[in-house]
């Protein structure tokens, strides 16, 4: 009888070890990405990120989940990027300007009139120079670019005076994100750049710390900035391409099929969202006109395009700009 009890005990011990091992394996195969962006919940991007999250979770059968945080709930973009570099399971919607702080050349994507259509923006994914910059970001700086098929639309100058030429921006303090290509672009186009976080724009305008901002139409409606701004001046000076970044360390620890799901669904959701943004842009413009904002369409865009070249010269990235544009046939 004692032999039977010993055998039973051994069997139960073995079964317990198997169950524990399976549990550990299952825990290791479950991953969560906490994804941060600065835009409001009413913006097309937020729904796009939710769509991305849903598809990844479905495709990995719950093995990889993306929790989406809007309105910079996890923190300021620059701080989040530094956390990502340290290996945190956090993602961030960002732009080439901020990535240019680590790999200077890639900042050209954020420059004036660099790309001017979704076709050009999506073609960037096949440019060899872009691939090289992404590799450098991943290998040297710990930033894995998941994809950059997210195009936020054309940025215009929103002010309290009419703007038709670069000269009209003289003395205007225009809010920009804190990155060199942003600063130099706005300076080249004729204004005085003021670095400020997105959430501070409304009170900044109220307190007259700034005279205007350069944003896309849906930003204005989502943040009710029409309450403190009168004119939408259609310079269309930057077609904003956004990058979705995660930690290289975290990404490399994912199972290969999870990596593939994360990347492929990012491309798909991004391109869909970019097209939705185009429609939202027209809707937001009409809404702003209904709210009393004046849209200035007769802008000397060629004068702004010529002026914008000074930004590339100031940063010493003219060669990089020309090389990538040649690779995408622009």
TrEMBL record:
Signal sequence extent: 1-27
Pfam families: DctP (PF03480)
UniProt keyword annotations, A-Z: Signal
Protein name (database record): C4-dicarboxylate TRAP transporter substrate-binding protein
Species name: Sinorhizobium garamanticum
């Amino acid at each position: 009888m004692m032999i039977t009890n010993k055998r039973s005990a051994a069997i139960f011990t073995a079964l317990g070890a198997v169950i524990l091992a399976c549990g550990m394996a299952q825990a290791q195969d479950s991953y969560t990405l906490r994804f941060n962006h600065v835009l409001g919940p009413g913006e097309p991007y937020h729904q796009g990120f939710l769509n991305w999250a849903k598809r990844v979770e479905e495709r990995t059968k719950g093995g990889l989940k993306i929790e989406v945080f809007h309105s910079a709930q996890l923190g300021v973009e620059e701080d989040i990027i530094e956390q990502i570099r340290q290996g945190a399971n956090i993602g961030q919607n960002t732009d080439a300007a901020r990535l240019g702080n680590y790999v200077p050349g890639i900042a050209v994507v954020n420059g004036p009139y660099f790309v001017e259509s979704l076709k050009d923006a999506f073609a960037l994914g096949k440019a060899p120079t872009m691939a090289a910059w992404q590799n450098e970001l991943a290998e040297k700086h710990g930033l894995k670019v998941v994809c950059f098929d997210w195009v936020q639309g054309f940025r215009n100058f929103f002010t309290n005076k009419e703007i038709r030429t670069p000269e009209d921006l003289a003395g205007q303090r225009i809010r920009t994100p804190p990155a060199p290509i942003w600063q130099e672009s706005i300076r080249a186009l004729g204004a005085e750049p003021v670095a400020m976080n997105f959430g501070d724009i409304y009170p900044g305008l109220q307190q007259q710390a700034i005279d205007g901002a350069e944003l896309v139409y849906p930003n204005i409606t989502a943040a009710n900035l029409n309450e403190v701004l009168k004119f939408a001046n259609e310079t269309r000076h930057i077609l904003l391409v956004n990058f979705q970044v995660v930690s290289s360390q975290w990404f490399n620890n994912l199972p290969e099929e999870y990596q593939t799901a994360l990347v492929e669904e990012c491309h798909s959701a991004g391109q869909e969202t970019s097209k939705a943004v185009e429609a939202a842009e027209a809707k937001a413009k009409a809404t702003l006109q209904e709210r009393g904002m004046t849209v200035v369409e007769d802008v000397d865009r060629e004068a702004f395009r010529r002026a914008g070249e000074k930004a590339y010269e100031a940063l010493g990235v003219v060669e990089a700009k020309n090389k990538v544009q040649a690779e995408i046939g622009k």
